[in-house]
Specification:
197 residues; disordered N terminus; seven-stranded mixed beta sheet; 36% helix; single chain; alpha/beta
Length: 197
């Protein structure tokens, strides 16, 4: 793995979903971009280059030259940035990995999927709509279910983790970075076996 390298053309895109700005940085909905940030730190790069309506960085991962991308639209328009990047590099949805939060999973769990529906996640829904495909990998990071059925879902995903939940989240973010490396290397089955739990 070459850390921070910019050699070669981008042939894989890794997206971390979340809302931009400090107000949202530590909310449940930003688990995806927190995993992307952890991955960037591991690769020795920072998400500072503004392009494709996103903050980006490039690095080598799993033998691929990857674009790390954090859309600067709000969550429900994430597909705008993703589709623009795929078009620019002439990539297929199969050359895309999305890191996202998932309210159906307990905090601290990770689930790797080869493809699938949006599962109610609005960022995934936007990406599916803009790239016109469900055929892309995703790593879902558990952020827990609403504590009360009557609670507004938006209020829940925009809430912050408790201190105990933050402790549980840390290894999940690390697992997501490991899964991303395997998926970039074309080893999605291994990623599913090792990290989905």
């Amino acid at each position: 793995m070459l850390f921070g390298s910019r050699r070669g053309a981008v042939d894989f895109v890794i997206v971390g979903l979340g809302n931009p700005g400090p107000k949202y940085a530590c909310t449940r909905h930003n688990a995806g971009v927190r995993a992307l940030t952890a991955l960037a730190e591991r690769l020795g790069v920072t998400l500072t280059r503004a392009r494709f309506h996103a903050l980006t960085a490039e690095a080598e991962l799993g033998g691929r030259h990857c674009l790390l991308l954090f859309p600067q639209t709000y969550m429900n328009e994430s597909g705008v940035a993703v589709a623009e990047a795929l078009r620019f590099y002439k990539l297929k949805p199969s050359q895309l990995l999305v890191l996202s939060d998932d309210i159906s999973l307990p905090v601290g769990t990770v689930r790797v999927r080869r493809k699938g529906s949006d599962g109610g996640q609005k960022g995934l829904r936007s990406i599916i709509g803009h790239v016109d495909s469900e055929e892309f990998a995703r790593v879902k990071i558990g952020v827990g279910q609403k504590p009360h059925p009557e609670m507004d879902l938006a209020d829940w995903v925009l809430s912050r983790f408790t201190a105990a939940e933050e402790q549980a989240l840390a290894p999940a973010l690390e697992a997501a970075t490991g899964a991303a490396e395997l998926i970039a290397a074309g080893e999605i089955d291994q990623a599913m076996n090792r990290y989905s739990r």
